[in-house]
């Protein structure tokens, strides 16, 4: 079985990146993480990736050099780009080069609560269920085709932190499952 090659983009601690890296370390998982790119030289996730033996790159943020990111991804023969807490919006020209090969994880059940502070939006709306969504990235924020979702109940005593922590735990599983689904569908 040919494993698809993942390029993972992060801006911070990289917990979803770490979940993907750990999944890739299982020989039966149909993907391998080949590079990690960040726009933040202080991103804690860099150390995690380096400890796993994955090539890491810092691409300056002012403005974001999407061409440099593209060159790195081509160099590593990346099949699928996984945004894992990458806090920059990718422009149309970049996305057109990687059409249907960029995915993201979002902390809500899209199409509800798009954009920033999705957990706070859910609490303010008074919903009883929220969750996480892995979706394809398009120029419209959080609007691409949905690949996988996991529901998370909103508990009566939840605050932003407690809800965020429970959603994040599910994100780690949902993201891995979405990558598996994509890799297996590409193998057919």
Summarize the structure.
By secondary structure, the protein is an alpha/beta fold. The protein has helices spanning 15-24, 45-51, 66-75, 92-97, 118-125, 160-187; strands at residues 4-10, 31-38, 55-58, 80-83, 102-106, 129-136, 146-153.
Name the descriptors.
188 residues; 7 strands; seven-stranded mixed β-sheet; single chain; 37% helix; Rossmann fold; globular; alpha/beta
Q: How would you sum up this structure, described in words?
A:
The chain is globular and about 50 Å long. It has six helices and seven strands. Helix content is 37%, strand content 23%. The protein has a single domain (4-187), classed as Rossmann fold, CATH 3.40.50. It has 188 residues and is α/β, with parallel strands linked by helices. The chain has helices spanning 15-24, 45-51, 66-75, 92-97, 118-125, 160-187, and strands at residues 4-10, 31-38, 55-58, 80-83, 102-106, 129-136, 146-153. Strands 3-2-1-4-5-6-7 form a seven-stranded mixed beta sheet, with helices on both faces.
Topology:
Blueprint: E1 4-10, H1 15-24, E2 31-38, H2 45-51, E3 55-58, H3 66-75, E4 80-83, H4 92-97, E5 102-106, H5 118-125, E6 129-136, E7 146-153, H6 160-187
Parallel strand pairs: 1-2, 1-4, 2-3, 4-5
Antiparallel strand pairs: 5-6, 6-7
Helix pairs in contact: 1-6
CATH topology annotation: Rossmann fold
What series of H and E elements makes up the topology? EHEHEHEHEHEEH
Radius of gyration: 16 Å
Query: How many runs of DSSP E, i.e. beta strands?
Result: 7
Terminal Cα separation, in Å?
11 Å
Uncertain runs with pLDDT below 50, 5 residues or more? Answer: none
CATH level-1 class? Alpha Beta
Task: List the strand order in the largest sheet.
Answer: 3-2-1-4-5-6-7
- Kindly give the count of domains: 1
Looking at CATH, the homologous superfamily is Formyl transferase, N-terminal domain
Helix vs. strand class: alpha/beta
CATH architecture: 3-Layer(aba) Sandwich
How would a crystallographer describe the biggest sheet? 7 strands, mixed
Number of helices: 6
Q: Which overall shape is indicated by the principal axes computed on the Cα atoms?
A: globular
Helix % is 25-40%
| pLDDT averaged over residues | 96
Q: How large a portion of the residues is in β-strands, by DSSP E?
A: 15-25%
């Amino acid at each position: 079985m040919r494993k698809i090659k993942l390029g993972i983009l992060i801006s911070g601690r990289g917990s979803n990146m770490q979940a993907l890296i750990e999944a890739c370390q299982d020989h039966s998982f149909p993907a391998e993480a080949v590079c990690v790119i960040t726009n933040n030289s202080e991103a804690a996730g860099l150390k995690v990736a380096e400890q796993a033996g994955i090539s890491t790159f810092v691409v300056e943020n002012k403005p974001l050099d999407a061409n440099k990111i593209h060159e790195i991804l081509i160099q590593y023969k990346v099949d699928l780009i996984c945004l894992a807490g990458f806090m920059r919006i990718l422009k149309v020209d970049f996305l057109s080069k990687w059409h249907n090969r960029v995915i993201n994880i979002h902390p809500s059940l899209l199409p509800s609560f798009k954009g920033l502070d999705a957990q706070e939006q859910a609490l303010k709306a008074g919903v009883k269920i929220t969750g996480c969504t892995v979706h394809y990235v398009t120029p419209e924020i959080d609007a691409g085709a949905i690949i996988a979702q996991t529901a998370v109940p909103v508990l009566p005593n939840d605050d932003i932190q407690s809800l965020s922590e429970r959603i994040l735990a599910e994100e780690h599983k949902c993201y891995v499952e979405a990558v598996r689904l994509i890799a297996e569908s590409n193998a057919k």
